[in-house]
Amino acid sequence: MGFANPDRRFVLRWAWASLIANATLVLTGGLVRLTGSGLGCPTWPKCTDDSFVPHRALGINGVIEFGNRMLTYVLIAVAIATFLAVWRWSGADRSMRRLVILMGLGIPFQGVIGGITVLTDLNPWIVSFHLLLSMALLAASVLLIVRVHGTGVEPVDAVHVWLVRTTYAVLWVVVYLGTIVTGSGPHAGDATAPRNGLDPADISQLHTDAVFLLVGLTAGCWLALRASAPVAARAALIVLIVELAQGLIGFVQYATDLPIALVAAHLVGAAILIAAGTHLLLVASPKPAVDRSRAA
Length: 296
Hints:
The protein contains 9 helices and 2 strands, in the order H-H-H-H-E-H-H-H-H-E-H. It is mainly α. It folds into 2 domains: 1-151, no CATH class; 153-296, no CATH class. Helix 1 runs antiparallel to helix 8 (260-283).
């Protein structure tokens, strides 16, 4: 069984590969910043003005930055394989095929945004967008997994659907505010990189307030869904657990002056949170409308 005649399990493995590859890119991109290697290759698309690969004078920072760039080609290979698997699978519909096209196009676009971050000396606002695009590709991978899997989606009441959707929107706000906190802090990716000029304490407090709102909404989702939608309730509980773990890591890292290991763990946690939140959004589907004329 392969690309010539794929079955659901084969396609599902490639969908998971896309999720793992994009999550890995989030981690390696964070390590580039945390090790001060953001300008390890000082230009783009070449590493230097004269070479596509780093030379010895760039040291370990050049190797780290170049390695992160090379990971893009791994993602492209995974995206092509996922595209072929979906397009040759008899169970794929038009929306699924459109999704893998968008996912594939998102990877070179992500590479261009990464290049712009280098050319702008790691402008924190562009770095923020660079991370959010990776998170969007993560969410798209979760969507593909759920669509290919074809089970686990649970119809819920309209009020509960809107509660879940509101929670998901706030989740993205929390992640975005986290990127702004990072843009105001010490881990700029290079000693010469600019900061966004915001007060770290003030923006951290705003981020914390949004986290409390998110935790409250997620707890509300779990409580509201337990009686009528156990699958969605379980998904909400997973999101809540991830949020609490993220909150603990965030508190400890702030209290200990942002050690690299904890910042990296917090970044991975954000990726897991996006994936778990997207899964909750997808499994809590609206109940089909009742045709009252027929019921009468």
